[in-house]
Every structure is written in structure tokens, then in C-alpha cells.
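User: Structure please.
Assistant: Input sequence and predicted structure:
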Amino acid sequence: MISIAFQAWRTCLLATSALGLLVPVAPAWADADDALAPAAVAGEIAHKQKMRQLFPDLLKGTQATPPVIPQLELDADPTGVIATYQPNGTTRTATSPFFQNLGTNGRTCFTCHEPQDAWGLSAQHVQDRFEENPTDPLFRLVDGATCPSDNVSSVEAMRKAYTLVLSKGLIRIGLPMQSSMQFQILSVDDPYGCNTNPTTGLTGAQSGTASFYRRPLPTANLGFLSTIMWDGREASLFTQAVDATLTHAQGATPPTAAQQQQIVSFEGCTTAFTPAPCTNTPAGTGLFTAQILDRNADYLAADGASGGPVTLAQQLSGFFVCENDPLGLSPCTLSFTPVIFTAYDAWSKLIGGGPVTEARRAIARGEQVFNSIPIDITGVAGINDVLGETHVPGFCGTCHDTPNAGNHSVKAPLNIGITDAGALAPPVLDISGLPVFTVMCTAGPLAGQTFQVTDIGRAMISGNCADIGKTKGPILRGLAARAPYFHNGSAATLLDAVNFYDQRFGIGFTEQQKTDLVAFLNSL
């Protein structure tokens, strides 16, 4: 049944189209069902607390933490330099709960969120950390290993147990099956046996714990968020801080209200939009991260460009949910524009020669590719099925519409095929080593249909069969520092990600357009 809000949006969309304006679409999620989210979060906490008792970590290790995070921090990454900017100034880590051990296994928020990885986690740095210290708190059985029951009695055994975090930076997420879900799990092809072992995994088609492997999302630029976590299960950054402490850090007690406030204030958020993922945090505070120097194009704020995190922080004050999304719901705007990024407009007009100038022109061309190349959106659960349209005209900005940030400005989980497995597995992406779930819909409009996926996604939170395989899109900033890409790390490089989109939607990028687009994405 189409909601009244959705009908109003579509009426406005048609009216706008009648005026001759091409308006790419995105589905409304204001009335999405989050009824199962509290039980999902509680189930994950209970599961990981249980794993702490059954499979305790015998090896202990600490993590080196810098004494301060300066107002402007610069760190080398594979294509240049990533920068962190804090409008409120330097942070002393000794007094910030973000950097303190609030759990029982030595972990802190900093364990999976470091500035050199754009406050996310790069697979290369995971490998470096393992070689330097295999007892680093990142390597803990509860979710760093493929399963809490893994053998870690030697370094080589540990290397095998931590294969997914080492190769793709993936952390195990254990979520409960619930009897009210519109689907059941028929079978799991799990190379680690974690899902098929009733002690650590499933106990029936709709009971027990299902384990998925996902990339940690960055804890910077959070003021641009419209939803939290890949599946949207967290209600706020405050609840996320509590749940991360009780799950990833296996804390015996939750952080205090004061500690929660300090964590969220350090990360940064804004109350300038409604509904807000977090509250009580002043706008313009927290962490902002972006590429500031490119190995080929040099300083990304030169010659009229506006790359880097300082400009990004200044842009946050005008952001609100659905700022650039044609939903027809207050405070949404109907004047959608696919011109999402403008940071490098000035570089399209550069004259002269030389390698730096040419590298800058390539970034500007890539920005234009992102903003202007049309995409025929087909087969996307969350767009085509909701609209009842086989073909929907769009652009990169249809799903990455927040100006100069690139995430979706509304809560819009989509399935573009990244989670598909079996015969539908995307050939461009590497999903090897991930478990494959065969899921059958038992209720709702999709009853009787069967899916094969590496991640059930949003459906674990909503319980709706239509949400199988759906995840949110991340903010497109700091990409160069946090490979691999997509929620399951299936794109090793940005070129792999571009090739996936090109093949998935039949875009027809030229080799030059691919090269330019990668150069632009690396400049974010």
C-alpha cells in the first residue's frame, strides 16, 4: 500500500517533470518500519556478552594512542594526504572517553576509527597492525575473528581466524532472527561454521543468531548523517555509543550519560535538521575529514578549488535531512539537482600545461562525470519496486544527493546488487569468503520468493522481505584513506567500484571517464 506521503511526493514529481525538469527519484522512508530494531540491538548485545563468557580472549594487548588530536591533523594515505579538522580545537585523548577503555577486551572507539583511515578502518592498516602486534585490541574473538570459537593458539592460527578483517577490514555483526519476520533462512553456506553452529549461530529457520561481516563506518562528518549503521538499526549516536561499548568492547556496564555526551560531542553532530540521528550537540563541532593533498594534483584547495575538511565543516551549517531529495515532505525540497559536488569547478577552466595542471583538470572532469552522466536505474529494490517503474532516469547524485558530502540525505536503504550471491553474484566484485544465505519469504507481497545473499541487510531490522539485501550508502568523503569499498569490502579499489556501477547499470563509461572519476573520488 502506497503511503499518502509517497503519493504526494509522486504527484509533485510528475508536476515537476511536466515543467520539463529532469528530476531523478528516491523513495520515501519516513514511515519505514523500525519496530524490530530494539530487539535486534538487544539481541546483538546479549550474543556478544554470551560470547565473552564462552570464548574469552586469553591474549591481551594494548593500542598506541596519540596524546592529542590537533585541530588540523594530516596523515599520509595511498593517494596523498587525508586531513582531520576540529572546529573546536585540539582534543586531549586522556580525557576523552572515545579513546578510553570502557569495556573488558582492551578496545576503545579509536581501535576501529583512526584519523589515517578517515576515522574508519583500512585493510592495509589492519595488516600492518597485525604484523606489528597480533595482540592489538582489534584482534579479538568476539567480532574480529570469523567466529568467536576460532582457534587462536598460534600466530598462524590467528592469521586464519582474522582473515576477513585482515583482507577486507570486516567486523562480524551478530543479529537475532525474530519470529515476526516475513522470511526464514533455509540454509547457509558458511565457510567458518559460525552460522551453522547452534552455540554461536542459528538454532532454526527463524531463531538464533545470523552473522554478517561489515566494514566499520567512519566516525567523522557525522553531521551529514540521515541514518546510523549500514542497516539503520541505531536510533541515535548516543545509543550507538552505548551499544558499541557493550558489543565490540564487551563492556560489563554501559558508558555513563556524561561519557556518551563526550563521545558524541567529539564525533560531532548537528541539530539543524529533523528527524535528527543525534541531539544536544552544537552544530559545527566534532570531526570533519577529507582529502587535502593529492599526489598528482597537489593541494586540493589551490587555484580556486575548495577541497579539504575546513570547507566541508563550513557547509554543514546549512544542511538538513532531504535537503536535495524530491520527497515532498517538509523540510524537503522539490528542486533536486544532480550537481552534487562543486569543489573543483574552478579547475575545469585551468589553462596551461604541466602534470599538476593536467591532474587537476582530470579531477574536474571526474566531478562533471559524477554530476552529469545519466544512469538508467533498473532492478533496484527501494526505487524501481516502490515506484512501479522498470526504468527510472537518474545520476550518481540520485543516491548520493547531499551537496558536497555525497551520502543520501534521507533514510534510504537500497539493494543495488552488492549483497547478491549465487547466479546473481556481481562478477566485478569479490564476495569470496563471505557466507551465503538462502532466504525464503513466508509472508507479505513477496511470499514464496527465494533470495541468495551474503547479507540480509535492512530486513534484519524491519522484518520485511522487501528489505532483504538493502543497506545505506556511506558518505563519500575520505575514500582514498579507507579501502576497500562497499559494506562488505567487495571492491578492493575505487576502480573496481566504478566498474561495478558501469556494468550493473550499463552506463557505458569510457576508459577516460573511469580514470577521471576515480581521480575525483580520490580527491574527496
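Residues 1-32, 270-284, 326-330 have pLDDT under 50 and may be disordered.
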